[in-house]
Amino acid sequence: MRIPLLFGKILFWACLIFLSLFFYYDSVIPYFYGYRSRIFGTAFFNNQLWVTMHMVGGTFALLLGPSQFWPAFRNRYLKFHRIAGKLYMFGILLIGISAGRLSLVSTCVPCRISLFLLTVFAVTATWFAWVAIKNRNTKAHRQMMVRSYVCVLAFVMVRIDDGQSLNFLFGSISDATFRRVVNEYFFSFVPLLITEIIMVWIPSVYYKRK
Questions:
Q1: N or C: which end of the chain has fewer CB within 10 A?
Q2: Which residues have a Cβ under 8 Å from the Cβ of 125 and sit 6 or more positions away?
Q3: What is the rounded distance in angstroms from the CA atom of residue 41 to the CA atom of residue 25?
Q4: Helices (H), 24-77
């Protein structure tokens, strides 16, 4: 039973890391080589600062996040775990500031609410994770870190539809704006709901009182 479970975990993390690295290569690195889109704005304080801050913060959170969840790695390299955790929180802070600003000027007006709420959830979950570990509540700390990282991954998953059709999820939606709104709200909140079901609902239902 343990071998299939271990294989499943390895496969899960391999897919997650591959998807994150592909997103980073395809959607983040081009900006540092001079690529510009409408969202990048026209001046330093007209989006350029915020988009750059968003990408830098996202880099810390996206790439350092996985190492926070591997028990063997975490226990063996505790000092790195703590440093990486602080850098992760710093990344979330940058994401919170920048995404909060970008949510007010997004070209997809109906998407602004989902972006703002997702930003609030990411910052709040990270804050509670920090409070929990300061109070030596490791279980709550792990759970809040999971929620935080799910929010970070949502920023990746909302970009999937740009390169890979998700008609099997949403059906064929011809209106581009409506399709983007459905995509944004689905990946902003459905993964969080699934996380709650796995992490809280199922254990609470199947827990047997001794």
A1: C
A2: 144, 145, 147, 148, 151
A3: 21
A4: 29-32, 48-64, 71-76
Residue 47 token pair: 């989006």
Q: Mean per-residue pLDDT for 124-153? A: 93
Torsion of CA 190, 97, 66, 149, to 10 degrees: -20
The dihedral through the CA atoms of 99, 102, 108, 109 has a sign that is positive
pLDDT grade for 34, boundaries at 50, 70 and 90: low
- Condensed to tens digits (0 to 9), the pLDDT of residues 36-68 reads 656 556 665 666 788 888 888 988 898 888 888
> 51 is written with which tokens?
């988009």
**Which residues, at least 6 apart from 102, have a Cβ–Cβ distance to it below 8 Å?**
39, 47, 50, 51, 54, 115
Residue 54 neighbours by CB under 8 Å, 6+ apart: 94, 95, 98, 99, 102
What are the counts of helices (DSSP H) followed by strands (DSSP E) for the chain? 11, 0
Would you tell me how many other CB atoms lie within 10 Å of the CB of residue 62? 24
Interhelix angle 78-102/112-134, nearest 10 degrees: 150
Q: Are 59 and 91 in contact (CB under 8 A)?
A: yes
Q: Which residue, among 94, 93, 111, has the nearest Cα to 103 in the 3D structure?
A: 111
Query: Is 150's pLDDT higher than 60?
Result: yes
Q: Which two tokens stand for residue 52?
A: 């750059």
